[in-house]
Amino acid sequence: MKRRVTQGRPNRPDVRPRGQGTMAQDGYSQALSGTGNTMNQGRSRSIRQGRNLPEVRADNLSVVVEALQKLQPISRSALADATGLTAASITHMVNELTAFDLLVEVPSNERQVGRRPTLLSFNRQRGQLIGIEVSRTRIHAIRSDFSGQALAHLERPFRPTASVKKGLTAIGDVIAELIDPLLPLLGIGVGIPGPVNSTLGIVIEPPNFGKWRNVSLADALSERFGVPCWLDDDAKAAAYGERWYGAGRHEETLLYISLRSGVGAGLIVGDRVYRGAHELAGEIGHTTIHVDGPLCECGNRGCLETLVSIPAIMQEARRLGLDIAEPGDLHRLALAGDTVAQNIKDRVYLYLLAALVNAVNHYDPAVIVLGGQLVRSWPDLTATLARNVKGRSFGYLSQDVRVVESLLAADASALGAVAIAIHHILRDPGQTLPDTPVTGLHIDGPELRAP
């Protein structure tokens, strides 16, 4: 069966957000710097903005990279067929990627009349990328090659409430430990609880994250390791990971929902992360589900996060007299016939179902991907919601939308951070790719400093 890949378009490319240095907001917002608010604020424009040739080139390069990820080893002619790009465009882009030593050519083993075609694959010795997910309890890191293939994993506990300086050092130490000293480091991607300013690489002020306020995390890591670093909200990074490497590889419109200590989401529309005017799109955890419900940290009442997050579930279970240590315990009690545990689960599913039906009607995604600790702790969660969404959403949408479990599981945000780094490198390989190995240049350099 022929696998579907995104098609390249000379005039309206499908792939990649615009911006410099990080996943950016398609040019409709600006970053505010200084000690005050660093959120992006929208600015109105009376004229729709066009796309310049370098951006078109980067978009089509991204299409070629996606096709190579799925189909390698592949010939140039097959690559042109898969992407919809002309043979001349493929030749130009393959030559560019080869010039940066990102591709290798090998002869085909197929028997055929005439000259055997040359096949293209990623050069796994070209270098490594590091993708990091920073949560309220852990640092989860992945080392990958340029195709996004995970080569190594590393996980360490993390306490953001200790101090910003210690947190920055801990993140840097995990990266230093994971790096292969024999390969050049090409870039670093980070997924971290929002809100963030992805354009400037700043962590603004995540809830329950200690004194992390307006922390220039991307600059700190770039200074220590001597390579570019990009960051994004962890749920948006996970959405990007699922789009490129996971459950949404064949879809251009995807909604990823993260269910763990908080509830977040990332929306992919037309192969781009949708951010909104202030990078707050996807805050599904702060949509009102129960108008008279519990008070949320955001100041509203009845937010989804106050009803279905793991802390909220654990609090309700203990209030009702259940002695449990984690959400998996609640699931096991329900399986054993405990009616209190089952009622708690049923109530959580009712709230989640309302949120998913709203999401289907608002965004019309092709697929909703559910991830996070709660999904992994309750094996029946995804199937239950998928079954009940049908018939509850608007018209035929409920029959077409798929609700699936994350394929990347705990790796979603970290692999998404890798994808973010890869796609930014493709915007300007000449500026971002090192000519010689750089790992170790700054590993033992100055300590990361808090602003």
From TrEMBL:
Segments spanning the bilayer are none
Q: Name the protein family.
A: Belongs to the ROK (NagC/XylR) family.
Q: Which PROSITE patterns match?
A: ROK
Q: Which UniProt keywords apply?
A: Kinase, Transferase
Q: Where is this region: Disordered?
A: 1-51
Q: Which CDD domains match?
A: ASKHA_ATPase_ROK_BsXylR-like
Gene3D superfamilies listed in its UniProt record: 3.30.420.40, Winged helix-like DNA-binding domain superfamily/Winged helix DNA-binding domain
> Compositionally biased, Polar residues: which spans?
27-49
Tell me one GO molecular function of this protein. kinase activity
What is the organism of origin for this protein?
Deinococcus humi
Q: Which InterPro entries match?
A: ATPase_NBD, ROK, ROK_cs, WH-like_DNA-bd_sf, WH_DNA-bd_sf
Keyword Secreted (UniProt): no
Q: What name appears for this protein in its UniProt entry?
A: Putative NBD/HSP70 family sugar kinase
Q: Name one Pfam family in it.
A: ROK
Give the superkingdom in one word.
Bacteria
The cross-references to SUPFAM superfamilies, in alphabetical order and at most eight, read: Actin-like ATPase domain, Winged helix' DNA-binding domain
